[in-house]
Design goal:
This protein is α+β, with helices and mostly antiparallel strands. Helix content is 46%, strand content 18%.
Length: 637
């Protein structure tokens, strides 16, 4: 199995396990929309990878199951026992195919989708509520009870040790052989009389079990006697060479994550100890106390140095080049372009850029969805391109590079671009925004990330279900990243993803406003400026000139919904649309160990941390800042 197929199988098997758990949960709670969407996305993702690997049966099964869950989540079909059974059958078929591949089976040898699976899926899509047909009773299996003891007896002959049992009925020699290394002990052949006794004993047991036909008994005698007479091959005394030394080992990612968390906490503890030591040194110590303080200072410096080294070494174990991810895409683009009848060339740059392992793993699905959308929606067919004065072959570029403490990943095509007017119209038709909504072009582009949004009238096996870009936005923000879209009609579209190089320890700028201590990712901080008492106004909004360019001024307290405060310090935010963020004070910088917020969700806040003084710090989200301190586009009420 090649590496790409192996990675697909591992990722798809994880998804298949989650699918089964979600289906069982859905059976208990049929109204759970979140579970419905989770199952839908899992089949959608498996189908995308299966299509890339040319696994036709998997694509067919996943596509039909997608249709079923699309009908379930839109209410076109009810969640019935038949629907759950059909989905479980599909999940089982997918798992069987993946297991076959994992065991070394060739993709071309995989069985086709069973007709009964296709039939039950179609019945479920049509909303039929009948229970699935049960298997017919096995009438032909009636003689099985009588034949079973015979089969067991034959198996016993095959498994029986060649030596005779001891007086207590146990074969001590056989048990010894089972626990010593193979080839270190040779059992002596039993006497012919013993072999005959074994054969006769088995035959008697078979006859007592149910009168097995004489032909079977004859076969047992014929098999038992030669087996007992045969001697074990001579022991191979050849000395085996020592196994090759392993240059690398596989470690559970959970253990690496735990190690990184401990390393981060040790750095945090060392920083707090340094702050406490600095406060202690303000007091006057004499004699033995002064000596102890000197020794304590030296010890803490050494502990801080070692904890920092531990942190760096741990981070290095998690860093991987994005080329490991990018190498999967040329074939995907080639095959998909061929299916769509388009000529497309993919260029890749910056494959050596390193980023956190978690980021690399989580980017696969988003980039697959973006590439599929670029091929299906973005680039035109050769005749359309020629008519527009473009080369018949379209070009898609995938680039990565490191920028400060972030990694930038840009996917760009030279297709037809996005029409913001058409996007707003389609979103209004689907009820995702109000028809009277006043939106800029940049805000219109963000509509593609809304769940259920698609510009296609009919869904295909490639796109059109309104789920792909929603997956992209979710995955990027989960990793504390941000995504921005630039597009021009007739020229193409660019998706720019900004992600932290590593996830657990983030360089930040500490600020305070309205009595709250907050941390801003340094990835977006350009510089700090002093704010005047009064501002110029453009359209009723405050504006300040910075290096000759007018930038809008926004308050952090207002963006987060805090009480108004006297904010006289400005931070120039390096966003697609730069602006100045007003805060009360800047309290320095710090590398913080970020803890994600799981119990509650607060817009604009992605996690918490502890400062060197031990105070609780709220971490402002990168995406929130990149979007100009505005949340994502909200649905119309």
């Amino acid at each position: 199995m090649d590496d790409m197929l192996k990675e697909f199988v591992v990722e798809a098997m994880d998804l298949a396990v989650n699918v089964e758990e979600n289906l069982l949960r859905l059976e208990r709670d049929p109204e759970n929309k979140e579970t419905l969407n989770a199952v839908f996305r899992a089949f959608h993702t498996i189908k995308g990878g299966a299509g890339f690997m040319s696994l036709g049966a998997l694509v067919s099964a996943c596509h039909l199951t997608e249709n079923l869950f699309d009908a379930l989540r839109t209410g076109a079909a009810p969640v019935t026992p038949l629907a759950i059974e059909a989905a479980l059958m599909a999940s089982g078929f997918v798992a069987d195919q993946l297991t076959e591949l994992n065991n070394g089976g060739a993709p071309e040898d995989l069985p086709a989708m069973p007709a009964d699976l296709e039939a039950i899926l179609k019945d479920a899509i049509e909303g039929k509520a009948g229970a699935p047909a049960k298997a017919a009773p096995a009438a032909a299996a009636a003689p099985a009870p009588a034949a079973a003891p015979a089969a067991a007896a034959v198996a016993a002959v095959a498994a029986a040790p060649a030596g005779a049992a001891s007086a207590d009925g146990l074969d001590w020699e056989g048990m010894y052989i089972s626990v010593v290394p193979e080839g270190t002990y040779t059992r002596s052949a039993p006497a012919p009389a013993a072999a005959a006794a074994v054969s006769e004993g088995v035959a008697a047991a078979i006859a007592a079990a149910g009168g097995t036909p004489p032909a079977v008994l004859a076969e047992v005698h014929a098999e038992a006697a030669p087996a007992a007479a045969r001697a074990r091959p001579e022991r191979d005394d050849k000395v085996h060479a020592a196994p090759a030394k392993e240059e690398s080992i596989r470690i559970d990612a959970v253990k690496l994550d735990a190690l990184l968390e401990v390393a981060g906490e040790s750095v945090q503890a060392a920083n707090q100890a340094a702050v406490l030591l600095e406060r202690l040194q303000q007091f006057k110590f004499e004699g033995q106390a002064a000596s102890l303080m000197s020794a304590l200072t030296e010890t803490l410096e050494r502990a801080s140095r070692y904890s920092s080294e531990l942190q760096r070494a741990t981070l290095a174990t998690r860093m991987q080049p994005v080329g490991r991810l990018f190498q999967k895409f040329p074939r995907l683009v080639r095959e998909l372009a061929k299916d769509l009848g388009k000529e497309v060339e993919l260029t890749i740059e910056g494959a050596e850029t390193e980023v956190d392992r978690v980021v690399v793993d989580s980017l696969y699905d988003p980039l697959v969805h973006m590439l599929r959308n670029a091929l299906d929606h973005g680039v035109e067919s050769p005749d359309v391109r020629v008519a527009a004065g473009k080369p018949s072959k379209a070009y898609i570029s995938l680039k990565a590079w490191q920028e400060a403490n972030s990694v930038m990943i840009v996917l760009q095509d030279d297709g037809k671009g996005m029409d913001p007017i058409a996007l707003r119209k389609k979103a209004a038709e689907k009820g995702l925004i109000s028809p009277s909504a006043n939106m800029t072009d940049d805000e219109s582009y963000q509509l593609v990330f809304l769940p259920g949004f698609s510009t296609k009238e009919v869904a295909s096996s490639v796109s059109g279900r309104g789920v792909g870009m929603d997956v992209v936005k979710t995955a990027v923000e989960k990793n504390r990243g941000a995504i921005h879209i630039e597009s021009a009609l007739g020229k193409g579209t660019k998706f720019a993803i900004r992600l932290p190089i590593e996830l657990s320890i983030v360089p930040t700028m500490l600020v305070s406003t309205s009595g709250a201590l907050l941390a801003l990712p340094m990835a977006v901080v350009q510089r700090v400026v002093e704010l005047p008492e009064e501002f110029m106004e453009v359209g009723g909004a405050p504006v300040l000139k910075d290096q000759g360019r007018p930038l809008p001024v926004r308050t952090l307290a207002g963006a987060l919904g805090y009480a108004p405060a006297s904010e006289r310090v400005g931070i120039v935010v390096n966003a697609p649309q730069p602006y100045i963020l007003a805060v009360e004070a800047v309290d320095g910088t710090a590398d913080l160990v970020i803890k994600p917020m799981t119990a509650i969700s607060v817009e604009g806040i992605t996690g918490t941390a502890r400062s060197a003084e031990g105070e609780l710090v709220l971490v402002v989200g990168l995406s929130f800042l990149m979007d100009g301190c505005r949340g994502s586009v909200r649905m119309a009420a």
